[in-house]
TrEMBL record:
It comes from Dictyobacter alpinus. This is Luciferase-like protein. GO terms for biological process: alkanesulfonate catabolic process. InterPro entries: Luciferase-like_dom, Luciferase-like_sf, SsuD_RutA_monooxygenase. Residues 1-177 form the Luciferase-like domain. SUPFAM superfamilies: Bacterial luciferase-like.
């Protein structure tokens, strides 16, 4: 089991670039394996929003080992070629420590900014965008003609350190099947349970059902590749024995990445530093 921290890139002191960077350093020192940030550009929770890629770049400069990434990037409100450059550059800077979490997104970040498309086409656009990311990270010269994206005679260098690509983890609401079928084609799944709030989490039984469905959608070759099965979870933080037992229950159903979901609903980032400094329940 690997353990990560996920924090918002918005609201209160979560939008303090100096504090968030220092906390990422402290998380690595405490033994966490990953540090992830939300990817919002304009938010219903307030006007204080940091750019996630600048955040992650600052964190890369203050860490050596911990994995870094987004949970999750709404790919369809990004230009795939720009996102490809950002991720590849960060992977170079961090010496191959980037994980790209992706989702379809929606809401005010599309409506208020008059982003094109609609919820019925977000999934189709994301499938094309993910294919493009993988092609661009190959470093080969490519042309691409899709329904939503077109490229002609382009080559992206330098390649990411990680090959054949930076790992792509797909988020989605379980038990919706479409995002889980998408996840089966990539490198990991980050399910959020339907009607589970920001301080809750899916049960082991729900997680197991999700993972079994994803596995049923994979080819034999896909099933043989490393695959992240993420629990978007919440530890108690006070009873180490309880937390160890809780994590063990999820490990038994296949969870191999525990991402601790921190937000203002559990406290300010300053208040949660002591929890992070405890480290994960190995």
């Amino acid at each position: 089991m690997k353990f990560g921290i996920a924090i918002p890139n918005c609201h209160g002191d979560y939008a303090d670039i100096h504090l968030t960077t220092e906390v990422a350093h402290e998380a690595e020192e405490a033994g966490w394996d990953g540090f992830f940030v939300w990817d919002h550009i304009g938010d219903k929770w307030g006007d204080e929003v940091l750019d996630p890629w600048v955040m992650l770049t600052a964190m890369a400069m203050r860490t050596q080992r911990v994995k870094l990434g987004t949970m999750v990037t709404p790919v369809t409100r990004r230009r795939p070629w720009k996102l490809a450059r950002e991720v590849a550059t960060l992977d170079q800077l961090s010496n191959g420590r980037v994980i790209l979490g992706v989702g379809s997104g929606g809401g005010i970040e599309y409506i208020n900014y008059h982003e094109p498309g609609d919820v019925k086409t977000y999934g189709e656009r994301m499938d094309e965008a993910l294919e493009l990311l993988s092609l661009l990270w190959s470093g080969e010269r490519i042309s691409y003609q899709g329904e939503y994206y077109q490229l002609e005679n382009v080559r992206h260098l330098p390649r990411p350190v990680q090959q054949p690509r930076v790992p792509i983890w797909v988020g989605g609401v379980w038990p919706n099947h479409k995002p889980m079928r998408r996840a089966a084609r990539w490198d990991g799944v980050c399910p959020i349970g339907k009607n589970v709030n920001m301080t809750g989490q899916m049960t082991p039984e729900q997680a197991q059902a999700c993972f079994e469905y994803v596995a049923s959608q994979q080819t034999a070759d896909q099933a043989d590749q490393p695959f992240a099965k993420v629990q978007w979870g919440r530890l108690d933080g006070k009873d180490r024995g309880y937390d160890t037992a809780l994590v063990s229950n999820y490990a038994e159903v296949g969870v191999n990445w525990w991402i601790e979901n921190l937000s203002w609903e559990r406290g300010t980032l300053q208040e949660l530093r002591s929890f992070i400094r405890q480290g994960p329940p190995r």
